[in-house]
Design a protein that fits this description.
Blueprint: H1 3-9, E1 32-33, E2 50-51, E3 64-68, H2 72-75, E4 83-86, E5 93-98, E6 101-104, H3 124-131, E7 142-145, E8 156-162, E9 165-171, H4 182-197, H5 203-213, H6 223-226, H7 244-248, H8 279-283, H9 303-312, H10 373-380, E10 384-386, E11 415-417
Parallel strand pairs: 1-2
Antiparallel strand pairs: 3-9, 4-5, 5-8, 6-7, 8-9, 10-11
This protein binds a DNA duplex (13 and 13 nucleotides) through strand 4, strand 5 and helix 3.
InterPro entries: GCM, GCM_dom_sf, GCM_large, GCM_small, Tscrpt_reg_GCM
Subcellular location: Nucleus
Keywords: Developmental protein, DNA-binding, Nucleus, Transcription, Transcription regulation
Length: about 425
DNA sequence: CGATGCGGGGTGG
DNA sequence: CCACCCCGCATCG
């Protein structure tokens, strides 16, 4: 996607020519084009045609994407972050909230210099079990760093199928390191399984596997197995450097996700946890925050004000899962879709109560760059703005010192684009 | 075994 | 009312 196009997508111009954009709760969502390029002639319409984009595994910030209904990853509502289903009592919009990341309570450093960042099990039960395990590196207990990136609550992701597209909207900025991607976790799991099932201990092979999957994979291994991981010469690609993409391919048979479009996590996110710095992140390229609030009245870093705007969109202009019985005659009930189909698929003509007026959310500006720190600065000039209290990316490397209460230390980091 | 979805139900603002 | 959370149930790989 060209620079110009990126710009156009992030076109929340808060002025006379205000260009509205969609919100996951909108009664009517933009139509989607097949091609990658938006229809310029309809740019001024809230319902202007939009183009689908390649799947984004690691979304962050207040962003919105439109994927092709054929996109396998989108169909599965995947995310690199560990997201669990959250009941929002709306069968048309699937809501998921972030579980955070599991880390070593002692914050030890792995052989490769990185830190343990496990993917929290989605299943509650499994997660509890997971937390009882010990750090594969230092034997300390594991700890779940909850996500509080959305006004103190976990970052939420919303999915909605509409027409030929799958709409995705995220709210909040992850205030914790990335966990392993889902595919990595799965890979590790199967790897461990293989190992267990094959008696002959083969150090060589294990090392190879490890290198392929990254240090974080060391985690859930049996303590007895641990020693083999303390191998020197550990590849240093995890977590920050690796592109999630390679691991995603297994799920990406259709190849709708150009690896080149992947972007790493933003180092700034972690300022929220001063006690936990991640070298990997800090050295990784950054990308401009994907905030998309454009209402000047929110500017002054008032989480409260911000929340107002943000959460406003969480509610729906839709009927919560229409119940067949009395009431809503004009609505069909949400019939259970045939196996395989998400039940939140549109099942009734959308009802438009309150039109979510320009939710002041602009369209996924995040996609605007997969560049490096420097480049970001260039591009963002005048567009991406940080709140005054927000330190520069690299300054976020708060020394973790000894204190470990990195949880409630700072408010969320917000960013506003396109004032 | 878990990942996912669904949806009933409780809670606090 | 709304946004969140918890929990159990069911399906599926």
């Amino acid at each position: 996607m060209s620079r110009a196009e990126e710009r156009e997508e992030a076109d929340c111009v808060c002025s006379v020519g205000m260009k509205f954009t969609w919100d996951i709760n909108d009664p009517k969502l933009p139509q989607v084009t097949n091609g990658p390029t938006p229809d310029r002639h309809l740019m001024d319409s809230p319902l202007r045609h939009k183009a689908v984009r390649p799947f984004q595994e690691w979304t962050d910030g207040y962003v919105r994407f439109i994927y092709s209904a054929e996109d396998k990853n989108a169909q599965r509502h995947l995310s690199g972050w560990a997201m669990r289903n959250t009941n929002n009592h709306n069968c048309q919009i699937l809501k998921k909230s972030c579980l955070g990341v599991v880390v070593c309570s002692r914050g030890c450093t792995l052989p490769d210099g990185s830190r343990l960042q496990l993917r929290p099990a989605i299943c509650d039960k499994a997660r509890q079990k997971q937390q009882k395990k010990l750090c594969p590196s230092c034997n300390a207990t594991l700890e779940l760093l909850p996500c509080r990136g959305h006004s103190g609550y976990p970052v939420t992701n919303f999915w909605r199928v509409d027409g030929k597209a799958i709409f995705f909207q995220a709210k909040g900025v992850h205030d914790h390191p990335r966990p392993e991607s889902k595919s990595e976790t799965e890979a590790r799991r199967s790897s461990v399984k293989r190992r267990v099932s094959s008696p002959p201990f083969t150090p060589k092979r294990r090392l190879i596997e490890t290198q392929a999957l990254g240090p974080a994979l060391l985690s859930c291994v049996d303590p007895s197995d641990r020693i083999s991981f303390i191998e020197p010469n550990f590849p240093q690609h995890y977590p920050a450097f690796q592109s999630p993409e390679p691991y995603y391919n297994p799920h990406n048979a259709l190849g709708d996700t150009p690896a080149t479009l992947q972007k790493p996590a933003n180092p700034r996110l972690y300022m929220g946890r001063p006690g936990y710095d991640f070298q990997g992140y800090l050295t990784s390229p950054s990308y401009p925050m994907t905030s998309d609030l454009c209402d000047p009245s929110n500017a002054p870093g008032s989480p409260a004000a911000l929340q107002t705007i943000i959460t406003t969109t969480t509610k729906v202009s839709y009927q919560p899962c229409p119940k067949p019985p009395a009431a809503l005659p004009s609505y069909q009930s949400c019939p259970k879709p045939p196996a395989g189909l998400p039940s939140y698929q549109p099942c009734a003509p959308p009802k438009p109560p309150g039109l979510p007026v320009c939710s002041s959310l602009m369209d996924d500006p995040s996609s605007s760059s997969y560049s490096t720190e420097v480049k970001v600065t260039e591009e963002s000039g005048g567009v991406i703005k940080s709140l005054s209290f927000q330190p520069e990316p690299l300054q976020t490397k708060t020394e973790r010192a000894d204190s470990y209460d990195y949880r409630y230390a700072y408010p969320n980091t917000y960013r506003y684009d396109d004032y």
